[in-house]
Each structure stands twice: as structure tokens, then as C-alpha cells.
Design a protein that fits this description.
Pfam families: HTH_1, LysR_substrate. The protein has two domains: about 5-90, Orthogonal Bundle (Arc Repressor Mutant, subunit A); about 90-304, D-Maltodextrin-Binding Protein, domain 2, CATH 3.40.190. About 40% of the residues lie in helices and about 20% in strands. The protein has helices at about 10-20, 25-30, 35-50, 65-90, 100-120, 170-175, 200-205, 225-235, 245-250, 280-300, and strands spanning about 55, 60-65, 95-100, 125-130, 145-150, 155-170, 240, 265-275. It has a six-stranded mixed β-sheet with strand order 4-3-5-8-6-7. Strands 1-2 form a two-stranded antiparallel sheet.
């Protein structure tokens, strides 16, 4: 589209704010103008478009189908403009949206994110925890932290943060109920947390026992190491956990790791983002920080 065919920037800004906030008055407050001025700019935009963008009802403003189709594209355009301007100024500003697995968020990231905010006070981090995959094309997410084997789809860049090795852990009180856990087979005398997890079979094979020794009985499935660790600390069973994440619990004795053998399936927690956005200031500073901070606190990590 030619530049002279674009609607006035003031009208587009008014529409974007009103669509995002769902209210003309709040949009006016954000833009430092009046509700009447926002309403006037949007009316101009609707005249240019030849169709209503909002349904105006008493005490309620709602986007029309045309407005709903336009709003995310306008917001994305303003975000791209802001990122380009930030890159021009040489700084990281705005909002960084990080989508991460609950385990990594609870076990490491939430404990260290404050250090990042201290060195990047102009960049606000919004943390989203989920176990589903992220689609960068349709979701407003800057970077994701997920478990992967490193074979990323074309167009994505990734950096290994922490390898996901694993070993059985439990509370010392639970171990004491059978006189202590002295050999791997003793684990079968205790309840397992999520025995259907493939890590159990892999660990037992690595420890010299057949995987089919695991009992086939109903057991809790929690979907996240973070929750399994809480259950293990409470004495509800033996959990298969990544030792790197539970150094503090192992040191203070709330968890014990009875055997040195640690399994590995070749996967790890990876930082992933679109390759084309590699040099955006907010992604660059977060990438450099997290890889350095993981190396400092855990002694392992990926490479830039």
C-alpha cells in the first residue's frame, strides 16, 4: 500500500488504544487526550474504511467483525515500530513476553528474574507458563523456554540452557519407612509419582534393572516436575527429577538422591525464538543474560 493511502496515524493510534483497552475513555487517558477526541478520530477512520469498527452501546463498546480483524494487525504494527525505534536508539525497552514450562519457571527462572530486571529496568518481562507449544506467527510471544532435543524447525534459533538429566528423589522420612533406600530395587517398595513417565524405565535400565519391574497400578500424574517435587518433599512418593534444579533441597535435606546414577534422554531446556528476530535488543539482552546467569548459578548452559 502506498503511504498516501494509509489512514492518519492519530486515528490509527486512537483505534489501537480503544481496541486494546476496550474503552474510549481509558484510551483517551493513555493517549493524553479527551474521550471526544478519541471518538472523533475513530469516526474518521470508520469513514475512511467505509464500515463501522465499533458497536457503540450504553456503557459498552465492542469491536465489530471488521474491527476484530483489524485490531491485532494494528497492534503488531505498532509493536514492530516500537522495536525498530528501540533498536535505532540502541536500547532494550518495552515488554518482553517469555513463555516457559512451569518446571523451569518454578525451579530457576522465577528465582533469578529480578536480577535481569535490575540490569534492564526499561524492559518489563511478562512471564507465561504453559506446557503447550507456541506458534510465533499467531501469538504475541518473544521467546520460549521448552524441552527439546535441539532439532528445531526451520526459522527458529535455539540455545541449550540446561540438559534434562534425571534421578529418583524422595523425602528422608519416606525412605525411613522401609529402613532406608539401599539399592534401586528398594524404590519398588515405595509409591512412585507418575510411574508412567518414560524416565522411570530409562533410569531403571541404566541402573541394571529391567524396566518392566515397575508396578502397573494407578498413580498420580501431575504434568510438571515442579509439582512432582512438591509431592516428593511432602512424602507422597518417589519422584524422577532433574538434580540440577533441586540442589538447594538436596543440600538442606528436604530431598535425598539415594543413587549417583543419573539418566539422560538427550533432551534439555532450550531458549527458542524466531531467527529473524535474533538481533532485536530485547531478545538479545535476555539471551545474553540468561545464558550467563545459568552458567554462573548452575555451572552449565548453552552457547550464544
Amino acid at each position: 500500500m502506498a503511504i498516501n493511502q494509509l489512514p492518519p496515524l492519530t486515528a490509527i493510534r486512537a483505534f489501537e488504544a480503544a481496541a486494546r483497552l476496550g474503552n474510549f475513555t481509558r484510551a483517551a487517558e493513555e493517549l493524553g487526550t479527551t474521550q471526544a477526541a478519541v471518538s472523533y478520530q475513530i469516526k474518521l477512520l470508520e469513514e475512511r474504511a467505509g464500515t463501522p469498527l465499533f458497536l457503540r452501546r450504553p456503557k459498552q463498546t465492542e469491536l465489530t467483525d471488521a474491527g476484530r480483524a483489524l485490531a491485532p494487525r494494528v497492534s503488531a504494527a505498532f509493536e514492530m515500530l516500537g522495536e525498530a525505534w528501540g533498536e535505532t536508539r540502541g536500547g532494550a525497552r518495552g515488554v518482553l513476553v517469555v513463555s516457559t514450562l512451569p518446571t523451569f519457571a518454578a525451579s530457576w527462572l522465577a528465582r533469578h528474574l529480578g536480577a535481569f530486571q535490575m540490569v534492564q529496568p526499561d524492559l518489563a518481562v511478562r512471564l507465561e507458563t504453559t506446557t503447550r507449544n507456541t506458534d510465533f506467527r499467531t501469538e504475541q510471544v518473544d521467546v520460549v523456554i521448552r524441552r527439546d532435543d535441539g532439532n528445531l524447525p526451520l526459522g527458529l534459533a535455539g540455545h541449550l540452557i540446561v540438559p534434562t538429566d534425571f534421578a529418583p528423589m524422595l523425602s528422608p522420612k519416606l525412605a525411613a519407612t522401609i529402613g532406608g533406600v539401599k539399592e534401586p530395587a528398594d524404590l519398588l517398595r515405595l509409591p512412585q509419582i507418575d510411574p508412567g513417565d518414560l524416565w522411570w524405565g530409562e533410569w531403571f535400565v541404566g541402573a541394571g534393572l529391567p524396566a518392566d519391574m515397575l508396578p502397573q497400578r494407578p498413580a498420580p500424574k501431575m504434568g510438571s516436575q515442579a509439582y512432582e517435587a512438591i509431592a516428593a518433599i511432602a512424602g507422597h512418593g518417589v519422584a524422577m527429577l532433574t538434580p540440577t534444579f533441586y540442589r538447594e533441597e538436596l543440600a538442606n535435606g528436604t530431598l535425598i538422591q539415594p543413587f549417583e546414577h543419573v539418566g539422560s534422554d538427550g533432551s534439555g531446556f532450550w531458549l527458542v525464538y524466531p531467527e529473524e528476530r535474533r538481533n532485536l535488543p530485547k531478545i538479545k539482552v535476555f539471551r545474553e543474560w540468561i545464558l550467563a546467569e545459568v552458567e554462573r548459578t548452575l555451572g552449565r548452559g548453552g552457547q550464544c
